[in-house]
Protein backbone atom coordinates (compact mmCIF):
# COMPACT_ATOMS: atom_id res chain seq x y z
CA UNK A 1 0.00 0.00 0.00
CA UNK A 2 1.39 3.40 -1.01
CA UNK A 3 2.33 5.73 1.82
CA UNK A 4 -0.13 8.56 2.35
CA UNK A 5 1.26 11.91 1.23
CA UNK A 6 0.62 14.65 3.79
CA UNK A 7 0.14 17.71 1.60
CA UNK A 8 -2.60 19.89 0.12
CA UNK A 9 -2.55 18.00 -3.20
CA UNK A 10 -3.18 14.70 -1.40
CA UNK A 11 -5.93 16.35 0.69
CA UNK A 12 -7.67 17.54 -2.48
CA UNK A 13 -7.35 14.07 -4.00
CA UNK A 14 -8.86 12.37 -0.93
CA UNK A 15 -11.75 14.85 -0.83
CA UNK A 16 -12.42 14.13 -4.51
CA UNK A 17 -12.34 10.36 -3.84
CA UNK A 18 -14.80 10.70 -0.98
CA UNK A 19 -17.16 12.84 -3.09
CA UNK A 20 -17.02 10.34 -5.98
CA UNK A 21 -17.74 7.39 -3.68
CA UNK A 22 -20.56 9.35 -2.07
CA UNK A 23 -22.17 10.00 -5.45
CA UNK A 24 -21.83 6.36 -6.55
CA UNK A 25 -22.98 4.70 -3.32
CA UNK A 26 -26.72 5.67 -3.49
CA UNK A 27 -27.11 4.05 -6.93
CA UNK A 28 -25.40 0.90 -5.65
CA UNK A 29 -27.67 0.82 -2.60
CA UNK A 30 -30.75 1.27 -4.81
CA UNK A 31 -29.66 -1.58 -7.07
CA UNK A 32 -28.93 -3.72 -4.00
CA UNK A 33 -32.43 -3.06 -2.66
CA UNK A 34 -34.03 -3.94 -6.01
CA UNK A 35 -31.96 -7.12 -6.42
CA UNK A 36 -32.77 -8.28 -2.89
CA UNK A 37 -36.45 -7.72 -3.67
CA UNK A 38 -36.19 -9.70 -6.93
CA UNK A 39 -34.32 -12.47 -5.11
CA UNK A 40 -37.09 -12.65 -2.52
CA UNK A 41 -39.74 -12.79 -5.26
CA UNK A 42 -37.84 -15.62 -6.99
CA UNK A 43 -37.54 -17.51 -3.70
CA UNK A 44 -41.27 -17.11 -3.01
CA UNK A 45 -42.08 -18.27 -6.56
CA UNK A 46 -39.96 -21.40 -5.95
CA UNK A 47 -41.78 -22.12 -2.71
CA UNK A 48 -45.16 -21.60 -4.40
CA UNK A 49 -44.19 -23.96 -7.23
CA UNK A 50 -43.11 -26.64 -4.76
CA UNK A 51 -46.49 -26.28 -3.03
CA UNK A 52 -48.36 -26.38 -6.36
CA UNK A 53 -46.53 -29.54 -7.44
CA UNK A 54 -47.26 -31.25 -4.13
CA UNK A 55 -50.94 -30.26 -4.29
CA UNK A 56 -51.31 -31.38 -7.92
CA UNK A 57 -49.64 -34.75 -7.27
CA UNK A 58 -51.89 -35.32 -4.24
CA UNK A 59 -54.93 -34.41 -6.36
CA UNK A 60 -53.88 -36.84 -9.11
CA UNK A 61 -53.49 -39.72 -6.67
CA UNK A 62 -56.84 -38.86 -5.13
CA UNK A 63 -58.61 -38.86 -8.51
CA UNK A 64 -56.70 -41.89 -9.81
CA UNK A 65 -56.16 -44.21 -6.84
CA UNK A 66 -55.22 -47.01 -9.23
CA UNK A 67 -51.81 -45.31 -9.59
CA UNK A 68 -50.90 -46.75 -6.20
CA UNK A 69 -50.77 -50.20 -7.79
CA UNK A 70 -47.10 -51.06 -8.24
CA UNK A 71 -47.38 -52.74 -11.68
CA UNK A 72 -48.79 -49.72 -13.50
CA UNK A 73 -46.06 -48.37 -15.78
CA UNK A 74 -46.11 -44.61 -16.38
CA UNK A 75 -42.60 -44.22 -17.78
CA UNK A 76 -42.70 -42.88 -21.31
CA UNK A 77 -46.40 -42.13 -21.11
CA UNK A 78 -45.61 -38.42 -21.48
CA UNK A 79 -42.24 -37.03 -22.53
CA UNK A 80 -40.94 -33.56 -23.29
CA UNK A 81 -40.49 -33.31 -27.03
CA UNK A 82 -39.10 -29.76 -27.00
CA UNK A 83 -39.05 -26.58 -24.98
CA UNK A 84 -38.09 -22.97 -25.57
CA UNK A 85 -36.17 -20.74 -23.19
CA UNK A 86 -35.85 -16.96 -23.45
CA UNK A 87 -33.55 -14.60 -21.59
CA UNK A 88 -34.60 -11.67 -19.45
CA UNK A 89 -32.29 -8.86 -18.38
CA UNK A 90 -33.23 -8.19 -14.78
CA UNK A 91 -31.28 -5.26 -13.31
CA UNK A 92 -28.24 -6.22 -15.34
CA UNK A 93 -28.54 -9.92 -14.51
CA UNK A 94 -29.50 -12.27 -17.33
CA UNK A 95 -32.03 -14.86 -16.14
CA UNK A 96 -33.92 -17.58 -18.07
CA UNK A 97 -37.62 -17.58 -18.84
CA UNK A 98 -39.53 -20.70 -19.85
CA UNK A 99 -41.54 -19.68 -22.90
CA UNK A 100 -43.08 -22.95 -24.02
CA UNK A 101 -43.00 -26.74 -23.72
CA UNK A 102 -44.25 -29.32 -26.20
CA UNK A 103 -45.13 -32.75 -24.81
CA UNK A 104 -45.43 -36.04 -26.64
CA UNK A 105 -47.73 -38.80 -25.44
CA UNK A 106 -47.08 -42.49 -25.97
CA UNK A 107 -49.30 -44.06 -28.61
CA UNK A 108 -51.72 -46.63 -27.26
CA UNK A 109 -54.41 -48.41 -29.17
CA UNK A 110 -57.85 -47.11 -28.28
CA UNK A 111 -59.12 -50.56 -27.26
CA UNK A 112 -56.18 -51.29 -24.92
CA UNK A 113 -56.01 -47.80 -23.51
CA UNK A 114 -57.40 -47.48 -19.96
CA UNK A 115 -60.37 -45.17 -19.60
CA UNK A 116 -58.39 -42.90 -17.28
CA UNK A 117 -55.47 -42.56 -19.75
CA UNK A 118 -56.34 -39.03 -20.94
CA UNK A 119 -56.80 -37.65 -17.46
CA UNK A 120 -53.52 -39.22 -16.30
CA UNK A 121 -51.60 -37.92 -19.34
CA UNK A 122 -53.02 -34.43 -18.86
CA UNK A 123 -52.13 -34.49 -15.15
CA UNK A 124 -48.60 -35.70 -15.92
CA UNK A 125 -48.14 -32.86 -18.39
CA UNK A 126 -49.23 -30.36 -15.75
CA UNK A 127 -46.83 -31.82 -13.18
CA UNK A 128 -43.93 -31.94 -15.66
CA UNK A 129 -44.65 -28.37 -16.76
CA UNK A 130 -44.56 -27.19 -13.16
CA UNK A 131 -41.34 -29.11 -12.49
CA UNK A 132 -39.62 -27.59 -15.52
CA UNK A 133 -40.78 -24.15 -14.44
CA UNK A 134 -39.40 -24.95 -10.99
CA UNK A 135 -35.98 -25.78 -12.50
CA UNK A 136 -35.94 -22.50 -14.41
CA UNK A 137 -37.06 -20.58 -11.31
CA UNK A 138 -34.25 -22.22 -9.33
CA UNK A 139 -31.71 -21.01 -11.91
CA UNK A 140 -33.25 -17.52 -11.77
CA UNK A 141 -33.06 -17.57 -7.97
CA UNK A 142 -29.40 -18.69 -7.92
CA UNK A 143 -28.40 -16.02 -10.46
CA UNK A 144 -30.24 -13.29 -8.55
CA UNK A 145 -28.79 -14.57 -5.28
CA UNK A 146 -25.27 -14.35 -6.75
CA UNK A 147 -25.94 -10.86 -8.16
CA UNK A 148 -27.34 -9.67 -4.81
CA UNK A 149 -24.27 -11.05 -3.02
CA UNK A 150 -21.94 -9.25 -5.44
CA UNK A 151 -23.74 -5.90 -5.17
CA UNK A 152 -23.83 -6.23 -1.36
CA UNK A 153 -20.06 -6.76 -1.37
CA UNK A 154 -19.66 -3.59 -3.44
CA UNK A 155 -21.93 -1.59 -1.15
CA UNK A 156 -19.93 -2.80 1.86
CA UNK A 157 -16.67 -1.96 0.09
CA UNK A 158 -17.79 1.62 -0.50
CA UNK A 159 -19.64 2.23 2.78
CA UNK A 160 -17.36 0.31 5.18
CA UNK A 161 -13.93 0.56 3.53
CA UNK A 162 -13.39 3.17 0.82
CA UNK A 163 -15.42 6.09 2.24
CA UNK A 164 -14.20 5.61 5.86
CA UNK A 165 -10.63 5.27 4.52
CA UNK A 166 -10.93 8.52 2.57
CA UNK A 167 -12.43 10.25 5.62
CA UNK A 168 -9.59 8.98 7.82
CA UNK A 169 -7.00 10.15 5.28
CA UNK A 170 -8.65 13.59 5.10
CA UNK A 171 -8.53 13.78 8.88
CA UNK A 172 -4.85 12.75 9.04
CA UNK A 173 -3.77 15.18 6.33
CA UNK A 174 -5.90 17.96 7.82
CA UNK A 175 -4.37 17.49 11.27
CA UNK A 176 -0.86 17.37 9.82
CA UNK A 177 -1.39 20.54 7.78
CA UNK A 178 -2.94 22.30 10.79
CA UNK A 179 0.06 21.33 12.91
CA UNK A 180 2.39 22.55 10.17
CA UNK A 181 0.49 25.83 9.96
CA UNK A 182 0.62 26.33 13.73
CA UNK A 183 4.32 25.45 13.76
CA UNK A 184 4.88 27.97 10.96
CA UNK A 185 3.09 30.69 12.95
CA UNK A 186 5.16 29.87 16.03
CA UNK A 187 8.40 29.96 14.01
CA UNK A 188 7.36 33.27 12.46
CA UNK A 189 6.70 34.78 15.90
CA UNK A 190 9.98 33.45 17.25
CA UNK A 191 11.83 34.89 14.26
CA UNK A 192 10.22 38.32 14.80
CA UNK A 193 11.07 38.23 18.49
CA UNK A 194 14.67 37.26 17.65
CA UNK A 195 14.92 40.18 15.23
CA UNK A 196 13.61 42.55 17.90
CA UNK A 197 16.08 41.19 20.44
CA UNK A 198 18.92 41.42 17.94
CA UNK A 199 17.90 44.97 17.03
CA UNK A 200 17.76 46.04 20.66
CA UNK A 201 21.13 44.43 21.31
CA UNK A 202 22.63 46.29 18.36
CA UNK A 203 21.35 49.66 19.65
CA UNK A 204 23.14 49.14 22.92
Automatic annotation (TrEMBL):
Belongs to the V-ATPase D subunit family. InterPro entries: V_ATPase_D. It holds the Pfam family ATP-synt_D. One of its GO terms (molecular function) is proton-transporting ATPase activity, rotational mechanism. The keyword Ribonucleoprotein does not apply. Keywords: Coiled coil, Ion transport, Transport. The keyword Ion transport applies. This is V/A-type H+-transporting ATPase subunit D. Gene3D superfamilies: 1.10.287.3240. It comes from the Bacteria. Residues 25-59 form a coiled coil.
Amino acid sequence: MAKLALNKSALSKEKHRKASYGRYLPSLEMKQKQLLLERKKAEEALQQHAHDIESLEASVYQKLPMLAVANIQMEGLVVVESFKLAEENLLGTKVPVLESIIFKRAEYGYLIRPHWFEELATSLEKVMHLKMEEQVLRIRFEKLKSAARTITQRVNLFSKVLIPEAEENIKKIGLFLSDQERAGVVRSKLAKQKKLVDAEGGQR
